[in-house]
Design goal:
single chain; about 525 residues; alpha/beta; Methionyl-trna Synthetase, domain 2; Isoleucyl-tRNA Synthetase, Domain 1; four-stranded antiparallel beta sheet
Amino acid sequence: MASQPGRRALVIDTPPTSNGDLHVGHLAGPFLAADVHARYLRARGRSVVFSTGTDDSQTYVLASARRAGRTPEELCGRSWHAIRRTLADMGISLDGFAPYDDRYRAAVLDFVNALHAKGKFRLRTVRLPYSERTGEFLVEGLVCGYCPICLVRSRGGLCESCGHPNNFDELLEPQSTMDTDDPVTVREAQILVLPMEEYRDRLTEFFLAREARLRPHTVQLVREVLSRPLPDFPITYPLGWGIPAPFPETPGQVLNAWVEGIPAVMYCTAFAAERLGEHHPADDELWRAERDAEVIYFIGFDNVYFWGFTHVALLMAHEGRYVLPDAIISNEFYELENEKFSTSLGHVVYSADLLAELPRDLIRFYLALSAPEHQQTNFGRDALTKVTGQRLVDPWNRLAGLLGKAVAEAGLDGATLPVSAGARRRARAMLDRFRACYELSGYSLNRAAILIVDQLDRLLRTAERLDRSTMDVERLADLFFEVRALLTGASPILIDLAEASGPAGADRRFDLDASTASTVTPFALPLLDRTVVR
């Protein structure tokens, strides 16, 4: 399934849980990947709406607030502002960061009420973990145990390790995440569910059509999930935190936070479109089937089941009203110094703290180079300094110095120089390789970052061979032309370097026609700093 240039792209960065600020593990996953792709699409002339918000209804918010001695409402408010600030400071080019407000809740209720009216939900009696000490049901972030599929420690609802769901009472040796000494029993409750097995054939067809764009671990999970009966998806839970369920069958219950996902991102899309100057009659307008938008998800592997199965089934249940996602780009976990990020244990590096020390281009480059695309990778503070210094800052600044000196010695400042056919071919080849990294069929931040390093090394070697005694103007012109192509290709990642290069530098439209351009004007290459300049 290839991208269609005429279609509008709805780039979805799945809303983060509002239980604290973002750390570099969050950014190295879906956030940077979504931003780079959105920037690339805009540079190709595509119409893009890139949006997200926060996921306030998650039980993880409730658990984190209790541990911090705050109300969940207070934690959500603090987190929303912190997350929005971090994303902006990191250069994540969202068109809109939507608030969790009455309009959000109305969008969710409109979505689920329409399905309820069509009889899409079923009333089921299920067995749920129960806290004898607090007298409340324990689901999702309130309960932990061992995954029944892979036997790894897991929270309720979904296993982060194998990606499989663990519904209702399926966790082995369940414990309260708030109090491990709290006796956990099981009690029955009547809830509404979406019968996922009814969507098996359509889901199978959906994944077969998109398999070429799925990463191998996601393909494996899809095949495993489809090899066994699909469990019912809970629509409501007997909890006290979340949006009150409006259904007469389940009085006093709330909507499962995961049910909010699709109407939430529809609302986020509408909110972002308004920031672009658009106004639509309904918050789901841009997702309507007749709009034929290309929907692209960027998600962590641990969210693939919900976003790839249950959310798609909810869209299908609306009987053709909405488009289905075209691509699901997943990522694995990012470790910190070879251990799992843990906010509760203080093993974390917050993005805001890192941004106070280093220019964001260096952070973006290192996160792209080490992004956990196909397997778990590692963040190291010393490695960040060493890698960015040796592979980006030093060679770039050396190249800038050599070219600046050559232009000054030859008196070519402001001159328009002819470019050879060979340089045009090399520039086109370079841009083609960057496009291969940024297109969804082979999307890879790792390869894009390595391409920056490799091309920078090649151009620096060429600059070092310049004979300034005779000053080959044609070779100098070719160098500047190819540096322009490198800046263009790197611009979705090295956003500040591209901006600082000015109009004569990176053509961030990404449509530089390297085969027909015949001249170039030398320009001053901006230098890269190792630390934040105050």
